[in-house]
Amino acid sequence: MVPRRRRSPEDVAAASTFEGERRVLLAAPRGYCAGVDRAVVAVEKALERYGPPVYVRKEIVHNRHVVDTLTEKGVIFVEEADEVPEEALLVFSAHGVSPQVKQTAADRNLQTIDATCPLVTKVHREAVRFAKDDREILLIGHDGHEEVEGTYGEAPEATTVVNNPEEARTVEVQNPDQLVWLSQTTLSVDETMEIVQILRERFPNLQDPPSDDICYATSNRQAAIKKISPESDLVIVVGSANSSNSVRLKEVALEHGAARAERVDFANQIDEAWFEDARTIGVTSGASVPEVLVDEVLRLLADYGYGEAAEVVTAEEDIVFSLPKEIRKALQDAGHEDTGRGGRTR
C-alpha cells in the first residue's frame, strides 16, 4: 500500500495556488455493475450455504478490498482449478473461463458455481457460433486478461487477439471475407472503435458482432467521466490496478480534459499535495468497486475543505442479473424463498 503523505488541511491551504470554494463532482453511474454484484453475492451465498472454505479461481472481481474481505470470511483464491482439492467447491470468476478450465474442474470432481457475467457469456457464445460458421475471429482485448483467455479458449483455432491499434495495422488473416470482430467487455469504447476502424479499412468486409460487446456499465462509466473531466483539475478514480475498466477510466479522464487523473485503491493512498492545484475534483469508481470505498474518499475530501459532492448523472442503471443457477438451486433446496435476485442496490 502506498503510504499517505499526511499534510494538514492548513498546510495544503497555505500551499494552494488558488483561494475560494473547493468542490467535488461525483460521476454517476459509478461502482458496482450488475455482473460484479452478482458474482460477489454468489460467493457470499456459497459461504452461507456451504461454509468455508469456498475456492475461487482467480479473483472473483478485480478489486483488492473485495478479495481481502472475502478471504477473511473463508474464501481461498487459486490460480487454477487443479490447485483445488478433489470434490471441493469452486467458483468461476465474473471474467469467465475457457472450456479447458471447466474440463479440469470436472476431471477433479469439483462442485462448481459459474459466476461468469452474463455479458461475458454472450461473447463466449458468439465466439462459438462464429467459429462453427467458419468465421475467423479478431478478438480485441488484452492478452493475459482472464476474460480474453476465456473467450479465446472457446475457439482458439479461429481466434486472433488484437491488443492495440498497432497490432490492428499488422495482423494477418486467412480469409478477409469471412472475418468478424469481438471484444473484451471492459475496454475503452473510443480505443475499441479506433481499432475497429483500422481493421475495417484493411478488411472492408469485416463483420460486426450482433450487439455491442462493450458492457453497458463500462460505456456508462466512461460517458460519466467524460462529462465531468473538462471541469476537473483532478480526477480520482477508485479502482485496482488489475481492473481494466478502472485503468481505462483514468485514461479517459485525461483524454477528455482533466488536468490530472490518479487511480487509488483506497482513500489513504491519496496524496494531499494533489489538492494544492485542484479547485474542482472529479470522483468516480470502476465497475468492481463497492461504494464504501468512494465514501471514504469523499470523507477525506471533506476534511480538506471540499464541499458536498455534486452528483453528475449521465445514465440510470436498473439491470439486475439472476444468481448463477447452481447457487439458486442450492438455496431452493435449503428452503430459501428469495433466490432469484442477483445483486443488491448501492
TrEMBL record:
Dimethylallyl diphosphate binds at H62, H95, H145, S243, S244, N245, S288. Isopentenyl diphosphate binds at H62, H95, H145, S243, S244, N245, S288. [4Fe-4S] cluster binds at C33, C117, C215. It catalyses: isopentenyl diphosphate + 2 oxidized [2Fe-2S]-[ferredoxin] + H2O = (2E)-4-hydroxy-3-methylbut-2-enyl diphosphate + 2 reduced [2Fe-2S]-[ferredoxin] + 2 H(+); dimethylallyl diphosphate + 2 oxidized [2Fe-2S]-[ferredoxin] + H2O = (2E)-4-hydroxy-3-methylbut-2-enyl diphosphate + 2 reduced [2Fe-2S]-[ferredoxin] + 2 H(+). Pathway: Isoprenoid biosynthesis; dimethylallyl diphosphate biosynthesis; dimethylallyl diphosphate from (2E)-4-hydroxy-3-methylbutenyl diphosphate: step 1/1; Isoprenoid biosynthesis; isopentenyl diphosphate biosynthesis via DXP pathway; isopentenyl diphosphate from 1-deoxy-D-xylulose 5-phosphate: step 6/6. Its cofactor is [4Fe-4S] cluster. (2E)-4-hydroxy-3-methylbut-2-enyl diphosphate binds at H62, H95, H145, T185, S243, S244, N245, S288. It is an enzyme of class 1 (oxidoreductase). The keyword Hydrolase does not apply. CDD domains: lytB_ispH (cd13944). The keyword Membrane does not apply. It comes from the Bacteria. Keywords: 4Fe-4S, Iron, Iron-sulfur, Isoprene biosynthesis, Metal-binding, Oxidoreductase. InterPro entries: LytB/IspH. Its EC number is 1.17.7.4. NCBIfam families: ispH_lytB (TIGR00216), PRK01045.1-3 (NF002189), PRK01045.1-4 (NF002190). Catalyzes the conversion of 1-hydroxy-2-methyl-2-(E)-butenyl 4-diphosphate (HMBPP) into a mixture of isopentenyl diphosphate (IPP) and dimethylallyl diphosphate (DMAPP). Acts in the terminal step of the DOXP/MEP pathway for isoprenoid precursor biosynthesis. PANTHER family: 4-HYDROXY-3-METHYLBUT-2-ENYL DIPHOSPHATE REDUCTASE. Belongs to the IspH family. This is 4-hydroxy-3-methylbut-2-enyl diphosphate reductase. It comes from Nesterenkonia halobia.
